[in-house]
Amino acid sequence: MKRKNIFLILIILTVLVSAIVLIGRRYFFSEPILSSSKNMEYKISQIIEKMDDNGQFSGAVLISIKGNIMYKNAVGYANIEDSIPNTFNTKFRIASFTKPFTVMLILQLVEDGKLELDGRLINYLPEFPKEKGKNITIHQLLTHTAGITGESRIPNLIDIEKEYYSRERLLDCIAERELVFEPGKGREYSNFGYALLGLVIEKVSKKSYDEVLQEKICQPAGMKNTLGDITAQPIENKAIGYNYNYFTGLEKASFLDMSFVFGYGHILSTVYDLYLFDKALYSNKLLNEKSKDLFFNKYGWHYQNVPLGKGFKKIRSNSLDGSINGFGSHTQRIEKDTVFIVALRNTKEYKKQIVIKWPDFMISRVLAVMYGEEYDMPKKSGAYEIFKSLLESGEDQASNLYKKMKSKQTHKYYLNKREFLFFEDQLNNANIKDLSKAYKKIQSEE
Is residue 438 part of a domain? Predict the structure, then answer.
């Protein structure tokens, strides 16, 4: 009898598990369908404008569907000091979205028969130390498997990135560092590896990177506002980058000489130019089919499953984030629906995303609108607003604000325990012990 009961229970459990798996598979792995809602543009505008009101985003956004611009907007200031607003034509540093351009120029040289992916670095850049570079290939540089050091290993990075680097000096700066592993035997994300690829492009083409960029990418795609940023050169419509200081607000980002980020972070562009770049990739203007397969699946603008909305659903997209002093870039390319989303920003928060939100905060909501999923409207950090109120207005005002947040303003603020602990640490680290105690006391109030 007991065996029959156990057997029956096992059958029931098997059926239940199978049902859960089937339902989960349908929910989590079903392909999201692009919405046909007429309110799409309005809802997206609400999200962007709310983030602007909250001080969570400053920059420009463009969204296209099937090659047609569905939404575009610019918020915040390109230059706070002179009250110059961001516009559709503002040029932003696109940070690591420079890398797909470097990849594309390499693949074009391969198409032209001037370069081989399995070719040795020292064959194209003989100035690189032979013993160190004899086993490094172009493929390895593209895939971060060459053993070239990552920036996290450079203890004085914040100092050396402020200096001007000729191409020769940049090469020496990279070449003097030991390989972190034998080429092809590991992986370490390496900006310097892409700087070497930039040097290879110039050496093989016998032209400057910017000349090749204009000739081989910008002109065929019709991109008129994409170029290499030069620190000492005034450039029309260029945004200034800002970092957020929790005690004093937005301030100019720390200085960076753009010669140091050559090949991996030195390009300026606009949301419209990047839209034109995306459009060109649906043709053979820039790459042939074989190279495009390598570009999307191996080297350049990789596929990822990105979240959308409140749930756990994801969608397959070519997704890439970039970050550099005071700037951030974000792109989504959903090929099945010919959807392109680009957000370029000129405000950042060091490591965190409490006041200035990272792109996924915006994009997951935008994608939810576009694919008919549930989402929350952006809210402000309650922990930071109380921290700010305490600094500016004192304990009583901060305490009253906290009570309002908990009772009447849940639609406006979110309360996160980790963020409260973070700001408590900020006050302690700044040696403002009395306010730290007051901040902790406010959190304990019911």
Answer: yes
